[in-house]
Every structure is written in C-alpha cells, then in structure tokens.
Amino acid sequence: MIAYAIRRVVLMVPLLFAVATLTFFLMHSVEGGPFDSDRPISDATRARLNERYNLDGSLLTQYTNFIANTAQLDLGISTSSNERAITDIISEKFSVSIQLGICAFIFAVLLGVTLGVVSAMNQNGIGDYVGVFIATGGAALPSFILAPFLIILFALKLDWFDVLGWELWNYKKMVLPSVALGMLPGAFIARIARASMLDVLRQDYIRTARAKGVKEFSVITRHAVKNAMIPVLTVLGPIFAGLITGSFIIENAFAIPGLGNAFVSSVLIRDYGLIMGVTLFYAGIIAAMNLVVDLAYAMADPRIRL
User: Fold this and answer.
1) pLDDT at 67 over 80
2) What are the pLDDT digits (tens) for 87-130?
C-alpha cells in the first residue's frame, strides 16, 4: 500500500504539469490582459508593469519562467490584490471555502441518509413519496437556480436569513449557502441510501431478527441502517472533494469571500497568477482526495489489491 501511495503521488506531478500547461496557454489565448481597463495607461507604464509581473517576454519565456517558479512553490504575486503573494490569498480564501464545503457536506449527509431511510421504511407510502419528491427535486434543480429561489423566499420574503456574506456560527449567513450547495449531493445520497436500505430490509438476517422478537427500532438501527450505509460511504469522499472545490456559483450568488469567488473575479480581470495558482491548487486537492479515498477503500476491504 505504501508503494501504491508513493506511485500515485509521483503520478500527480505529470498531471499537475498537464493542467498547468493547458490552463496557461488557454488563458493567454483569450484577448485582453491584466492591465487592460477603461482607463488607458501609457506604453512606458505598461512596459514597467509587464516587467514587474514577468509578462514582458515571449509566451514561451513566460511559460518557462512560470514552470520554473512553480517547481520551487513560488506562485508569484497578484496583479489585482496590492501585490499580495498568491499563496497568501489562497490560504486566506480557502479557509472560507472549506468552511462552506464542510457545512454543505454535513447537510447533504443528514438530508440524504434521513430521506433514504425514511423512504425505504415507508415504501410506496406517503413517507416514500415525500422523500422521493424531495430527492428528485433536489437533483433536478441546479445550484444557480436553487440559490436565487432560496434568497427570494427565505431572505427577501420571509426575512429569516441574511443574503450576503459568510460568518462562521452565524446561522443566518450559513444556512442558505449550505443548503444551496448541499442539496444536489444530498439528493444523490438519498437515492443510494434508499436503494441500499430496501435491499438490506429484504435480507434473511433481518427477517430472522424480527422473528426472534427483536424490537423494530433495534432491527432498523443496529442491523439495517449500519449495513445499508456501506454503499453511501463509498461516495462520500468524492462528494466532499467536490463540495470544497466546486462552490464557485454559490460563493458568487451569496457574495462569500471564498476561493471560488476570488477565482471568478481573477478570470474577469485577467489576474494570470491567481488563475494559475487556484487551478493548480484545486487540481492538487482533488488528486489528493482521490488518493485518500482509494487508500481508505483498500484498508476497509482486504480483497482490494493496490
């Protein structure tokens, strides 16, 4: 397993190199630059700025310098944030994004498991219909539609929650973004939990436990739910990775100062350093999370050979 982990870590290097190369040339293929604005600047000023941010050479020279600096873990400075280091911006913004991602993940798990278990225990009943309706609606509504709907209904009409910003432990600012981001994965978990729970409830050991007179609550909690959650656990790793790296729309909809919001802003103003830094950071996070999930599966199931 150690050899597998080392091999996967080594393979991350060409993956990140490919991501960096593709992003770099696609980014520079778009018309415009970081110093193009409504206020014209002189050629001398533009030349000094290009020299300051290593944008004065040819495209190949810029690419070579970028790869060399990145290999030394130097992502450079931002052209739009008072020359702050890219690593400092990522560290500050990602702390907010991971808070949002964890809250959305908790909501998704609680919603999905609850709906799945209740639906399975009330198959073809009112509880099942309600659970399936919520899960289907959550899967059908993308976040860019769900977020404005939640804002209009619960913030503007009912005035239960705040619309803008993020503040940890302030439920008025945490609930709506967490629900908007976690609804889709919650619906996905609910469908898996329901199918798995229905399969477990048909097993012989469940019928045996009931025949022995074990209370229904104990049958469900001690036997059925525990075994039904195994398929759910297999998808939680990728879901968590997606939530902490895929909150671009939600962060912009609720004006949350996270890394996703900063990335979108950097694209609009052509902050090349921040675009490349965030792209590589997210690629590394996703690759690392996939490695952790694979290792966890292998440790849990000795039949898996790595």
Assistant:
1) yes
2) 888 988 899 999 999 999 999 999 999 999 888 888 888 888 88
What distance in Å separates the CA atoms of residue 163 and residue 154, rounded to the nearest whole number? 9
| Amino acid at residue number 208 | T
77 φ, ψ (degrees, to nearest 5): -120, 160
pTM of the predicted protein model: 0.84
The residue written with tokens 């052509």 in the block is 270
Tokens of 146: 């769900």
Instruction: Specify whether the CB–CB gap between 274 and 89 falls below 8 A.
Output: yes
- Give the length of the chain: 306
Tokens describing residue 231: 């398929």
* Amino acid (1-letter code) at residue 130: V
**What are the pLDDT digits (tens) for 218-249?**
888 777 888 888 888 878 888 888 888 878 88
Contact between 108 and 186 under an 8 Å Cβ cutoff? The reply is yes
Which tokens in the block code for residue 204?
């012989």
Query: Residues 83-92: contacts with CB within 8 Å, 24+ apart?
Result: 86/273, 86/274, 86/277, 87/277, 89/262, 89/274, 89/277, 90/259, 90/277, 90/278, 90/281
